[in-house]
Amino acid sequence: MISNTAIIKLKILCFVFIFSPLYNHNLSIYAFYYFLKTKIAFAPSVIVADDKYDFVATKFYTKMQMFKEYYTKEKYIGYLVGNLVIFSLSLLQKEIVPWDNKNLFLKDHVNKNNRYSLQYVEINKKNVIDAARLQFNIFYAMNNVGYCDYLKELETKDRYKNKVLPINFLVYLNNYPVGIIGLYELKEYPDDIWINWFGVDARYRNNGIGTQMLLKILDIAKSYHKKNFRLFTYETWNYHALSIYKRTMQLEESYDNAQENSFLIKFGKPKIYSRSLIDKEVQPWNNKFINLSDELLLNEKSIEKLKEDNLFNLFSESDFMETLMVE
């Protein structure tokens, strides 16, 4: 069996082969295909290159028979050495969908208040597969697949309007799904409302989208008239998001209730972040029992359901979204 360390080294090696002067080496071709099939966050289906500055790379992508288009929005061309070229490759064994000169840069989608023009759409029959794929891509490595949660929500329409929990949203930027976020409650603790399935597609992180989503769901949470706004996470597996939680929330606590699954406690290092929704100080969680084993059962049921619906292989073997390389 290949160790995790060996896999990481192999992925780094693939990165070196693809983005180095070794383009003419046969190993770079194998590395390129392996690179596309991995769960690496920057594995591309759309690659942006300058045809003069990146001439070796563009020659390689052409050799790989990737679909080639020129990006002709003039306001982005002035600072380039040559022309901006977009190379596309279908990862779904279907015909390539041309980029057709769509906006590339996230700054185009910032409004006059310096906010992204994000659209929050409740999970529904039309978008549940897109939401499930994004949730899978973000959480599968953490054994935390929530497909069954989304399917259950379809049983009740207008959940936000009727203040029904849980509720989950698929978040769009320029009609592309870029994130998921939601709310839920634990019946035993009626004063608290929790963030549910919060994640941003890896290719859109570190641009302020996650922070904006978190503040938006905070406003939505206030309409449910609870006292405390809380978020559960794992320090080990969600380390990339901790800085957002520290900036936005008011209280950080470690969670290690003795009744919980010992593996999750020991290796995941759970954290609970809290913020007050009323004009009083936030109340600490104080290590009250949550029952983390429920998420393991949900993960198993969701994977079984994905396989039953013939979606598991699609989700696990392909990168379903077009990659957006931003400046």
Secondary structure topology:
Blueprint: H1 4-18, H2 26-37, E1 46-50, H3 55-63, E2 67-70, E3 84-88, E4 118-122, H4 128-139, H5 147-153, E5 167-173, E6 176-184, E7 192-200, H6 209-222, E8 228-234, H7 242-248, E9 251-254, H8 262-268, E10 270-276, H9 293-308, H10 312-317
Parallel strand pairs: 7-8
Antiparallel strand pairs: 1-3, 2-3, 4-5, 5-6, 6-7, 8-10, 9-10
Helix pairs in contact: 1-2
Could you characterize the architecture of this molecule?
The chain is an alpha+beta fold. Helices cover 32% and strands 19% of the residues. A 7-stranded mixed β-sheet has the order 4-5-6-7-8-10-9, with helices on both faces. It is globular.
Task: Please tally the helical runs, counting DSSP H or I stretches of 4 or more residues.
Answer: 10
Q: What pattern of helices and strands is seen along the backbone?
A: HHEHEEEHHEEEHEHEHEHH
Total individual domains:
2
Could you tell me the radius of gyration in angstroms? 22 Å
User: Which residues form runs of ≥5 with pLDDT under 50?
Assistant: 6-23, 39-44, 74-81, 318-327
Helix content: 25-40%
Mean pLDDT: 79
Query: What is the CATH fold-level name of the largest domain?
Result: Aminopeptidase
Distance between the termini: 39 Å
Q: In what order do the strands lie side by side in the largest sheet?
A: 4-5-6-7-8-10-9
CATH superfamily of the largest domain: Gcn5-related N-acetyltransferase (GNAT)
Supply the helix-strand structural class.
Answer: alpha+beta
Task: Tell me what portion of residues adopts beta-strand conformation.
Answer: 15-25%
CATH class type of the largest domain: Alpha Beta
In the CATH hierarchy, the architecture of the largest domain is 3-Layer(aba) Sandwich
Task: Let me know the largest β-sheet.
Answer: 7 strands, mixed
Shape by Cα distribution = globular
Question: Could you give the count of β-strands?
Answer: 10
